Amino acid sequence: MKKTLVLLILFLSPSILNAVDSDTESRLISILANAKNKNKKIEIYLKLADLYKSNKDSKKAIEAYKSIIGLYPKKKISYEVLVLIGNTQLMEKQYADAIESYKEAIEIKPKREEGRLCLANVYKLSDLNDLAQMQYIEILNKNRRSFDANFGLANLYLEMDFNTKAILFYDKALKIKPDIEAFRQVAYCYEKAGDIDSAVLLLLRIEEKNRSYQDFIDLGRLYGLKNMKTESHKKYIQAINLNPEKAEAYIYLCISNLNDNDLDKALEFMSIAKNKYPKETSVHFLSSYIYYLKKDVKMAEEELRLAKEYCNDNVPEKEYLNKFKGYISGKK
């Protein structure tokens, strides 16, 4: 019963800690000094850790967590707290320290998945892909139906450009749970492999009511690659209906009409994009290019001037824009 209560405190700590804003550090320390049992001390240490993290003081937060370990060394409670310490270190990009914390947690509870999943993630962030792969495989050797391990390994293989392996493990994950993000990732794998039909079919398996703005954009792009312009435009319009304040769909519609040599329609969509993102380099550059094709050199130069003004000292971008200015001016 006692252990169950302690674990319940840890499990509920996010909701408990939401009330910490009204507590000051000194008040919590005073309560801690008068606490008579370990469970109360754990509750206060968790509140202190949350207070320190909200104040961006990860060092003190970790010290508070370690105080809990001092109360229950090498117990299940220590496992939970070591994972919290690792997560705090990970947020601060202290990857080497996070690795050690997760390893300590795994030593206490080697069969628990959470610690290994966290360790695999930090290995991946540290570009230690072979070690990350080992952690995922270790989990799958014990539990082939771990969605998180299958999905994590698939993401790792995708980043390593092992598309076939990535698709294999995404499929395994989807058989366990029809996760929307997994559908998106598999579609991306198929697109990278040049299998546009399979990519489209996977994105269409996401119910329309659950599709995001980016899903409609991706479907629009994929239909465009299949030269299905009506379907492509339809998806861009659906993206606009979902979020009319974003410029990306207008830009794609502009490019599509540009490919059809419908310069007026392309300029119409680009004008909408400019109104929404007036300081975006790409919209001014595309506008400049359209005016250049329309042989309106004055407007082409003005849009190019704005593109250069907003390119934030990006040297390669500025060099390209300067080169394009030569074309506008008739210089090769």
Explain how this protein is built.
- The chain has 332 residues and is mainly α.
- The chain is built from 19 helices and no strands.
- The longest helix has 17 residues, at 38-54.
- The protein starts with a helix and ends with a helix.
- It has helices spanning 2-17, 25-34, 38-54, 58-71, 76-91, 95-108, 113-125, 129-142, 147-159, 163-176, 180-192, 196-204, 213-225, 229-242, 248-259, 263-276, 281-293, 297-309, 315-328.
Question: What descriptors fit this protein?
Answer:
332 residues; 77% helix; mainly alpha
Layout: helices, strands, pairs:
Elements (H helix, E strand, L loop, with lengths): L1 H16 L7 H10 L3 H17 L3 H14 L4 H16 L3 H14 L4 H13 L3 H14 L4 H13 L3 H14 L3 H13 L3 H9 L8 H13 L3 H14 L5 H12 L3 H14 L4 H13 L3 H13 L5 H14 L4
Helix pairs in contact: 1-3, 1-5, 2-3, 3-4, 4-5, 5-6, 5-7, 6-7, 7-8, 7-9, 8-9, 9-10, 10-11, 11-12, 12-13, 13-14, 13-15, 14-15, 15-16, 16-17, 17-18, 18-19
Question: Structural class, from helix and strand content?
Answer: mainly alpha
> What integer value in Å does the Rg equal?
27 Å
Order of helices and strands: HHHHHHHHHHHHHHHHHHH
Mean pLDDT: 85
